[in-house]
Design brief:
The longest helix has 25 residues. The chain is of the alpha/beta class and 341 residues long. The protein is built from 14 helices and 9 strands. The two termini are 27 Å apart. The chain has one domain: 3-Layer(aba) Sandwich (Rossmann fold), CATH 3.40.50.300.
Length: 341
Amino acid sequence: MPSGRIFLTSCVDRLALGQRHESRTHGDRMIERDHLAEVRNVAARLHTNVAQVIVGNDAVIDLLLVALLSDGHVLLEDVPGTGKTMIAKTFARSLDCQFARIQFTADLLPSDIIGINIFNQQTSQFEVRPGPVVTQLLLADEINRAGPRTQAALLEAMEERQVTIEHQCIPLPHPFLVLATQNPVELAGTFPLPEAQLDRFLMRITLGYPGEEDEHTMLSRFRDATPHEVRKMQDAIRTVHMESIVEDYLVRLVRATRVHPAIELGASPRATLALYRTSQARAALDGRSYVLPDDIKQLAPAVLTHRLVLPTQMTLRGREAQEILAEIIETVPTPVEEPSV
């Protein structure tokens, strides 16, 4: 793809609120253009590779790539057998990343996740043996089947990118991405995730059933991007510009969830940052160096819905958080700016 496509100059694109960077030097723009072009090229390779498994569901792949570039975690919510484990394995192999899977059950202990301090009889000393969380891509399968204490073992890893074993802090490798799954239809034997833990997930994504042809697509996968490339891509999306009026729109959209009468607990400041980062990633995947209001609208359901807490009476009336969020998106005015010619 020609890198010149990253910085469009037509009036239509200036209307898209991202083309005025008078304070930047020509060299800075060239560097950003090259970095963002690389982001799109590598992301396109990853999309093609993962699409060998998630055939016909490009929207899910795009959301997973946005989460990867935003350095955030994903909650995959759907019925068993829809390919959630295969998605995680495909991402790990495509990125040449370390991969670990934890099957959450009622008897799973925190030490089974973060690790344990054991006594070595040969050296007569205690030594730390890290758990499966010390990896780059972690599949937390059926996370809501474990008790609250075990669920909480992931909180430090997800937020601070480290685990603590017997007062010893172990940093996690980079990139570190948690793909957690939960089944929304089976309630027996499950422990709902608390709001504080839901808030640590950048997105919640529903996969849906694959088509018949998709279920036959189990082709061999190859390594397509190294962890070093992923880190460079994550750094590059930070250069994606967000115009001040678009930033104001993002903040007003999140703050509207905190004052809506049908919402008991609105989106947190962490959600504001999450929506900002994912919007930058979405723009970079489209080959743009600027964020559009449509980027924010497109990602708001995946980023904000699982962070909203509704009163019990609203749930009984059948009102869903996604429906209420759609109302908020409709009522918050979208910014419009005249093109500068």
